[in-house]
Q: What sequence folds into this?
């Protein structure tokens, strides 16, 4: 069964898509943590960071390049932003389709890892 991000990529679920090409789709997070919160998602299914294969290295680089380009477009490059990939239970991953969070637009403070 297709996961929620596959459905967004296929156009079966609505999303605020800000960028797409043959490798990735980027859309605004439905529950934003900051004024800019965009998810950069590979079009092919890679469930978690653990599933990244050697042949995916260019794709992962492309995801980061798209993130920095979208940060420029959002006007948050100079102030800065955070890029996050959550993996599995301890990482707090909720959707098992690899995604890169681009978060910014306000000071994010220290990256807190609660005990
Ligand atoms: P993660 O915890 O890293 O798996 O993050 C999953 C993210 O997906 C969360 O920030 C959710 O708010 C976001 N999300 C879940 N469903 C949707 C959706 N339909 N459209 C946009 N973002 C979503």
A:
């Amino acid at each position: 069964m297709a996961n929620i991000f596959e459905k967004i990529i296929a156009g079966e679920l609505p999303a605020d898509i800000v960028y797409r090409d043959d490798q990735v789709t980027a859309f605004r997070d439905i529950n934003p943590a900051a004024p800019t919160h965009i998810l950069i998602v590979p079009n092919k299914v890679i469930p978690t960071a653990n599933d990244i294969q050697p042949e995916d290295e260019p794709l992962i680089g492309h995801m980061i390049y798209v993130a920095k380009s979208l940060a420029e477009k959002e006007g948050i490059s100079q102030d800065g932003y955070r890029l996050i990939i959550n993996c599995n239970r301890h990482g707090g991953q909720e959707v098992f389709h690899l995604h890169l969070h681009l978060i910014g637009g306000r000071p994010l403070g220290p990256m807190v890892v609660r005990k």
The beta strands are 17-20, 24-28, 36-42, 81-84, 100-104.
